[in-house]
Design a protein that fits this description.
alpha+beta; two-stranded antiparallel sheet; 3 helices
């Protein structure tokens, strides 16, 4: 399924196939839990906003999702939940 043109995920390399954006669940990356920071979600947080807060790059949202496999969608994450945030060094190993 293609992403709509205005999607905030349209420019994410993780969701491109043959240079075109698409919507699917790619193979997840394993991150080392001991190298993750814990973050408690607050009201108003979005997964891409959290990625920007930690990495300065909102397109790394998928790294946070991969590190938190109990969630199959960002829509399941709510205020008060504790997320594992992979270190930027761990992310650089896979991008």
């Amino acid at each position: 399924m293609s992403l709509y043109a205005g999607s905030r995920y349209a420019n994410c390399d993780r969701l491109k196939k043959n240079g075109r954006p698409f919507l699917s669940i790619p193979e997840r990356v394993e991150f080392t839990a001991s190298k993750c920071t814990l973050y408690q979600v607050i009201a108003g947080d979005t997964i891409d906003g959290i990625a920007y807060k930690f990495y300065g790059n909102a397109s790394y949202w998928w790294c946070i999702m991969d590190a938190n496999r109990e969630y199959s969608s960002e829509l399941e994450i709510k205020a008060g939940d504790i997320l594992q945030i992979p270190s930027i060094d761990e992310i650089r190993k896979v991008i």
